[in-house]
Amino acid sequence: MTTPADVHYYEVLDMNKLLILMIISILPATVNAKSKVKKPGLIEHDARIHTEMKQNKKLLQALVKAVNKSGYKCDSISAAEPFKMTFGYSLVCNQRQYEYSIRDQGGNFIVSVN
User: Fold this and answer.
1) Which of 10, 32, 39, 81 is such that its CA lies 20 to 30 A from the CA of 90?
2) Enclosing domain of residue 102
3) Of the candidates 77, 81, 82, 73, which has an alpha carbon nearest to the alpha carbon of residue 113?
4) In 3D, which of 91, 12, 72, 78 has the Cα closest to residue 43?
């Protein structure tokens, strides 16, 4: 014979099962919504990048990495172009907030702030 305490126990158990089922049914929609959020790209939509450099994403990533390794900030590229007379690059970052010169010295990138 079931007592009122037993009935209450089964009601709570059923409520917990219902709550777990609701959470499980909502979870996939939440995960899918988060996965569809577009992360900002490395290159800004209105960036001015030298034609040949646009094709070379690895070079652009290496320049940003060199800037960051040197302790400077570059989250997105506003402009990039090679030097005209020597080997190196000009890189402008973060909505034109920061401008850097990056040149090759003995096979290593040397970054300076303009």
Assistant:
1) 39
2) 43-113
3) 73
4) 78
Residue with tokens 């290593």: 108
Task: Give Cα 110 to chain centroid, integer Å.
Answer: 25
In one letter, which amino acid is 98?
Y
Place of tokens 């094709």: 55
Could you tell me if 71 and 51 lie in one domain? yes
Domain count within the chain: 2
16: left (phi over 0), alpha (psi -120 to 50) or beta: alpha
Query: What's the pLDDT tens digit per position in 16-44?
Result: 454 454 455 554 544 444 434 344 578 99
Please check whether residues 66 and 14 belong to one and the same domain: no
Q: Extract the tokens encoding 60.
A: 């652009």
